[in-house]
Amino acid sequence: MSSQAFNDKIPRSLSKRRYAVAAALVAVTGAVSAGLYVTLPEHRPATMHMAEGSAPAGASGRPVTEIKPISCTPLPDIPGKAVTVAIVDFPSDAYTPRHHHPGNVTAFVLKGTLKSQLAGEPPMTYTQGQSWFEPKGAIHLFAENASKTEPASLLAMFVADENCGPLTVFLPDDHDGHAR
Questions:
Q1: Is 65 helix (H, G, I), strand (E, B) or coil?
Q2: Residue 22: which of 34, 39, 9 has the closest Cα?
Q3: How far apart are the first and last CA of the chain?
């Protein structure tokens, strides 16, 4: 398909980037819904609390976000890289402090309202059906459930190293994102 033919198929209200992200999320969601997991359930990591381990203690007292990996699929045309799909649950009033991811991430809100801010950008509020993109290594200042009473969740698609390792790397509050 030519570039012009592709552009003609995009609704005028959507940018090319949002259209591509939405198409990718629809494809992944369809595959997940159909049960076409490459990673067998017994080999998938269990639910992980995003605030475990090296998470800063600054957000103590608030519920933590939980990430539930669904699949990790090596990309045959990009050696050493894989797509990991996960559901991220935000209990009411949940908070995730400053962090970054070892790969590119696209997040799609499945339920509820989330507040999020990447370094150098204004805080944003996302509701069901909206998405955002985080480039590899971008500093995510925070993510939180905007509701103190209702849960929220999102579908996250990570493109990172094939080993399907840690998806979140927590940073101290004063970290500016540069290598030390």
A1: coil
A2: 9
A3: 45
